[in-house]
Amino acid sequence: MDNKILLEVFVPAIEQEYDVFVPVNKTMGTIKKIIESGIIDLSDNVYMIKNDTNLYSKETGQMYDVNLKLTDTDLKNGSQVILI
């Protein structure tokens, strides 16, 4: 699966963590939408999408620019991110 990587996503709003495969050739804004959609399904609609959420590195606290492609970030297979 060279076109996808596995991210570990922590969602403080619902105190849950999910492993999510995301495409490497998409922007971080699109990836955030993909992750949120999956979390809605996985949480049985407990998670609610908000317009002001962003993805952050769990290691550094850095916010990922929604306009960057995933390949232009430091994310790799197994990276941990926070959806706040």
Characterise this structure:
The structure is a single chain. By secondary structure, the chain is of the alpha+beta class. The chain has one domain (about 10-75). The chain is built from 1 helix and 4 strands. It has a 4-stranded mixed beta sheet with strand order 2-1-4-3, covered by helices on one side. A hairpin with a 4-residue loop joins strand 1 and strand 2.
Overview features:
alpha+beta, 84 residues, four-stranded mixed beta sheet, 27% strand, single chain, 18% helix, 1 helix
Helix content: 10-25%
DSSP strand content:
25-35%
Distance between termini? 28 Å
Number of domains: 1
Tell me about the biggest sheet? 4 strands, mixed
Mean pLDDT: 95
**Quaternary assembly:** single chain
Radius of gyration: 12 Å
Arrangement of strands in the largest sheet: 2-1-4-3
Q: Strands, helices and their partners?
A:
Elements: E1 4-11, E2 16-23, H1 28-42, E3 55-57, E4 80-83
Parallel strand pairs: 1-4
Antiparallel strand pairs: 1-2, 3-4
Produce a short descriptive summary.
This protein has 84 residues and is an alpha+beta fold. Helices cover 18% and strands 27% of the residues.
